[in-house]
Specification:
globular, 163 residues, alpha+beta
Length: 163
Amino acid sequence: MSQSLAAVGTAAGQVAELALIGDLARPSRLTVADLHAWPQHRAQVSFECATSGIQHHTFTGPLLHDVLSAAGPAFDPVRRKDRLRFLIAVRGADGHHALLSWAEIDPDFGRAPVLLAVTLDDTPLDRAGPQLVLPQDRCGARHISGIEAIRVDGGYPATNGAR
């Protein structure tokens, strides 16, 4: 890609898109409007920002788990331990990255209410793109603005007999 997805989306007044890629049966490109198809959750979040101190915001959007589950991650859903080898890499338009494990967001494990926010303090994020919001994090370093891509990676098989 010569231009970022978010940059293409915001040029000429269009909406931003994010790409769901990696080990998925149904990779896709989604806009904020597309993310309204999932149940919306609201979270009042306080976190510490290294550059601007304590932040207080209200976000709404679908759960990351719901969106990624609909994309068909390439694990056997019946085998709980198979899910544990999957990582989720999130990249923002500003180059900021965050990494989560599938277990963090899976209802059978951490059940963290991680959002793909479509509003920030009741302001729609259609042009800026969705934000990754981790309400459980005290530090805001994993909050990603203007998400360009979410990669699901299951390339971490269990090692048999390795030390």
